[in-house]
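ok so I'm stuck.
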Amino acid sequence: MARILSKIIVGLLALWATSAIVTQILGITIFFPFNIVEGQEFMPYHRLNSIRLSIFVTFIYFSIRYLFFQSQKLYPIQFLEIYIKSFTITCLFVFYSMNVEFREYYFVFFFFIVSVILHFASRKKIRSYFN
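replied:
not stuck anymore, here's the structure
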C-alpha cells in the first residue's frame, strides 16, 4: 500500500515540477502548491532559503555516506526520501528562525507526510533486495 501511495505522490510531484519548469520558460513562476507569480515578483525568501539549505544537507549526507560506505547501492526512491526529509527539517528550522506565519507551516506538514510515506515505501524495497 505504501509503495502504491508513494508512486502516486512522486508522480504528482513530478507533474507539478514539470509544469513549474514549462511555466517558468513562459515567464510565469509557480511555487508550491499553486502560487502563481508573474513579472518581477519573487518567491518568498524563507522558501528559497529552505531549498538551498536542504540541498546542502543532502550533499553533506551523501558526502559522509561516500566517505564511509562507498559501495552501498541506493534506489531512486531512497534519494527522494533523503532529500524530502532534509527539506522538511530545514523548512522547519528556517520557518521557525524567520518567524514565518503559522499558516505557512502547512508546507512543512505536507512534506513531512510525504517523507513518512516514502520512508516506508523505500524500506520494503531494501528488505526485498537483501532477501
